[in-house]
TrEMBL record:
Keywords: DNA-binding, Transcription, Transcription regulation
Organism: Pseudorhodoferax soli
Keyword Nucleotide-binding: no
Gene3D superfamilies according to UniProt: GntR ligand-binding domain-like, Winged helix-like DNA-binding domain superfamily/Winged helix DNA-binding domain
HTH gntR-type domain mapped to chain residues: 63-130
Record's compositionally biased regions (Low complexity): 12-30, 46-65
Span list, region Disordered: 1-65
InterPro entries cross-referenced by the UniProt entry: GntR_C (IPR011711), TF_FadR/GntR_C (IPR008920), Tscrpt_reg_HTH_GntR (IPR000524), WH-like_DNA-bd_sf (IPR036388), WH_DNA-bd_sf (IPR036390)
Identification of the protein by name: GntR family transcriptional regulator
Domain of life: Bacteria
């Protein structure tokens, strides 16, 4: 089994700036973060501006050094830069990012929770195989939570909360109408519609928190934060996605709880299957086909 190559030493600096948009550049190894103090602690956040149309959305996030390293290594693993079984040595990663080993240990624990590496006593960390079943479960669990949210919205006679979702749907419509939109912008726009539905159903402590705190949440984000996300490449696919969300809001406003839930699940299963195809996991030997049939 190979070991992650050592990188040339650089000044011990790592940024605390994490943008909602990533360059996604593949260089054969993880790129070094931009300059900043390598304290392993969260530092001042940077404003990340994402423009998906004439409307500009600005978000600000803060990440620890360990979280930044986990994000970059995780994306590199998903892109195939580090094969299954490769050893992820603490010292090699510390030199790669020019940091101490403390933040590296934090990063490895994050990657272990995400299922991208496994850490064994006296053997260290190694890249593990991300299976069909795990990816299917990520989408299926989210589909169940979103299905419950749209049922709540359909059964609630007060539809005023949907006013916050309408502008997000309008942004998705504008992007779907473009010949060559940024696929990352489109993927993020679909996510904003989904998050708007969760917010509108009035369950911030349960549904929203559960959705955000799922063990694979960061892995989910890694799949999309790249120039060419694993879905929405064709114009027909983007148009169909917008139309599905538009019909979904119509069913919610018509108080059609069953129809809204079925359509929400369809949206999620379509994306699930696109991602499985993209990752080459649809027909792997140990795949449980019933995970796709059950949802």
């Amino acid at each position: 089994m190979s070991e992650m190559p050592h990188a040339r030493k650089t000044p011990a600096k790592v940024a605390a700036k994490v943008s909602s948009r990533s360059s996604g550049t593949s260089t054969g190894r993880s790129a070094r973060p931009a300059a900043g103090k390598a304290t392993g602690k969260a530092t001042r956040p940077a404003a990340a501006t994402t423009s998906a149309s004439s409307t500009t959305t600005t978000t600000t996030t803060t990440a620890t050094t360990g979280e930044q390293i986990a994000k970059q290594l995780g994306q590199a693993i998903l892109e195939g830069q580090h094969p299954v079984g490769e050893r992820v040595g603490e010292q090699a990663v510390a030199e790669m990012f020019a940091v101490s080993r403390g933040p590296v240990r934090d990063a490895l624990r994050i990657l272990e929770r995400q299922g991208l590496i496994e850490i064994q006593a006296r053997r260290g960390a190694r890249v593990r195989h991300l299976s069909h079943n795990e990816v299917a479960d990520i989408f299926n669990v989210r589909g169940v939570l979103l299905g419950l949210a749209v049922r709540y919205l359909s059964c609630d006679p007060d539809k005023s909360g949907l006013a916050e979702v309408d502008p997000r749907l309008a942004q998705l419509r504008r992007l779907a109408g473009q010949k060559k939109p940024s696929l990352l912008d489109f993927a993020q726009a679909t996510g904003r519609v989904a998050m708007g539905l969760l917010a509108a159903c009035g369950s911030p402590k349960v549904l929203q928190a559960t959705y955000r705190d799922l063990p694979h949440d960061a892995l989910w984000r890694m799949l999309w934060v790249k120039p060419s996300p694993p879905d929405y490449e064709s114009s027909a696919r983007r148009t169909a996605t917008y139309e599905d969300y538009a019909r979904l809001l119509e069913k919610i406003r018509a108080s059609d709880a069953d129809g809204a839930e079925l359509l929400m699940r369809k949206i999620m299963t379509n994306t699930r299957d696109e991602v499985l195809q993209y990752l080459g996991l649809m027909h792997e030997a140990d795949a449980d086909a019933f995970r796709r049939l059950a949802f």
